[in-house]
Amino acid sequence: xxxxxxxxxxFAAVASFATATPLIGRGAGTLKPLQFLAEVDLGxxxxxxxxxxxxxxxxxxxxxLKTTTISAAVIAGLAPLKNWEVLLHAxxxxxxxxxxxxxxxxxxxxxxxxxxxxxxxxPVKLTAVxxxxxxxxxxxxxxxxxxxxxxxxxxxxxTTKPFGKAVGHLRAAYWLNGEVNDTxxxxxxxxxxxxxxxxxTKMLQVWASLVGTMQARTEINGVAKEKTEQxxxxxxxxxxxxxxxxxxxxxxxxxPLAFVSRGGSIAPFNAGLDFWVLVP
Length: 280
Fold this sequence. Notes:
With 280 residues, the chain is mainly β. The protein has one helix and 19 strands.
């Protein structure tokens, strides 16, 4: 039992600074038939606080307990048919905590997207999404690079027709998580994104979003364990710069909304730099 509780605590630490996944990282538009997308999402964060369930507040972490993460998610996909995409997501990360460090590939995911409402004249574009995550991460890594579980997800992405120079997005997905090991099953998770884009020019866009995840309690031997659930809500601000038509460079920063978040550990901020290449 003590070992199982330790596994649950480790799992909570890994998922603690997660926001929305790349499954709902794009708007409702789909690629053209045989069009190709390549994406590299770089990120940095360092946990600084741990949730105190007794007092319902965040306490500072000692330096030896802070987890530093440098990530590089690689995504590649194409559209075999009109309104249908298939993508592969490989998360890479370097993590360190105290004297421990790990470098490797997390849980690889297969994504699919299908445009349900895709007409140019429609007031809202609607795309259905789905994913399978495979337990490819090294389960012995400390800190853990991935959750080491089989998981599946379904979701919907809605994008409004432009109003002036702005476009709105609402996205959500629900993840059914599998077993981390013989005794431990990760809690299911709901994720969402509410986002507003504003185009200053064809080469420069500013966007702001509210991103979050709500994960249920971890189960050990079929019993849900108290104080293992986690809620994460993050305000993000970013740019999209297009130096050439096929390349988008996307710097971004996120600030956690601690007053509506709970469980695990959080970073005071996270920063990212994404590169998207769209080949006609």
